[in-house]
């Protein structure tokens, strides 16, 4: 709890972020990419955040991950 309080007061504000990155299904996924398949990275501290292209915003990590088989079927249909 004390660590999170210190991070809030003195930690990174994540103002400098990357363009959203999408993993291909064959690549290994980070925890952030496992949520939606797309993520952004803070270029100052390196922390990754799940990103939703439909809403065009960072989403919480509590969203159910997309199963690889459903993602693969969607990619083959397109």
Could you explain the architecture of this structure?
This protein has 78 residues and is of the alpha+beta class. The protein is built from three helices and four strands, in the order αβαβββα. The chain has a four-stranded antiparallel β-sheet. The chain is elongated and about 40 Å long. The N and C termini lie far apart (46 Å).
What is the residue-averaged pLDDT?
76
Helical segment count: 3
Could you say which overall geometry the principal axes of the C-alpha atoms support? elongated
Helical coverage, percent range: 25-40%
For the terminal residues, how far apart are their CA atoms? 46 Å
Largest beta-sheet characterization = 4 strands, antiparallel
Percentage beta strand? 15-25%
**Structural class by SSE content:** alpha+beta
Radius of gyration: 15 Å
Record field, number of beta strands: 4
Element order, helices and strands? HEHEEEH
The neighbouring-strand order within the major sheet is 1-2-3-4
As residue ranges, the low-confidence spans are 63-70
Spell out the blueprint of helices and strands:
Blueprint: H1 2-10, E1 21-22, H2 33-36, E2 38-41, E3 48-52, E4 57-58, H3 68-77
Antiparallel strand pairs: 1-2, 2-3, 3-4
